[in-house]
């Protein structure tokens, strides 16, 4: 007979593709993991894992069993959560966020999160969407607030909020908002500066310049939003980012906005299916509440 230890070992080997990584995740030795799988395969009467490949894959029988094994673990988790419903959540939540959120409503979110989950410890990662998506898929973070959903197996997504993209510039460059156009920017030789080259905003802006035959505009990029802001403040170029991030600089007259019809940025919360449902719902409901409030207040 086998129990949940064997099932848990099997599920995590399939998820991570490695006996070693599964052992690390479950805080076990690799021989212990191997013994659990041997007992499970003994019981079912055949191999459940194909060990011939570099990344461990389930056999046909293993794929069929994996669906049921996941369901069994989730049902057990729900039952345990019901029994422990009166206990506050304790532990570390590894949360990844993009800079636009980090520099807008994240402080309010963290403050309210502490009120609702006083025994939770937050481990925060700030990065671009590609980096956070990669960390999420590699189980290095538990949840991510990124630009657009993370489209991958076993990842759930919910929309958070959205902000318009705008052009920001130091007034010293003397662009008149009433007469500004991208063609005028091209004639001036002033570069545009936007998000990293592997980001959706960069690709969309590049496509827009191509469609309008404005390829002579230099399109600089940076993985750091505040580097873009710094370059715009120093008059190096025109930043293409959400003006929400630089409202204070605009209010002080250090930056001005220029008219341009650019795609808006849609943000989403993403998390793996194995995360406790009650916890995920509580955290993400709060994020949606605060994100959409910020969106309305700064529209």
Our Rg estimate from Cα atoms comes to: 24 Å
CATH topology of the largest domain: D-Maltodextrin-Binding Protein, domain 2
The count of DSSP E runs of length 2 or more, i.e. the number of strands, is 12
Order of strands in the sheet with most strands: 4-3-5-12-6
CATH superfamily annotation of the largest domain: Periplasmic binding protein-like II
- Give the averaged pLDDT, no decimals: 90
Continuous helix count:
12
Helix content, binned percent: 40-55%
Instruction: Bin the strand percentage.
Output: 15-25%
Biggest sheet: strands, sense, closure? 5 strands, mixed
Q: What ranges have pLDDT less than 50 throughout 5 or more consecutive residues?
A: none
Shape: elongated
CATH class of the largest domain: Alpha Beta
Family: Belongs to the LysR transcriptional regulatory family.
Keywords: DNA-binding, Transcription, Transcription regulation
Protein name: LysR family transcriptional regulator
Domain HTH lysR-type: 2-59
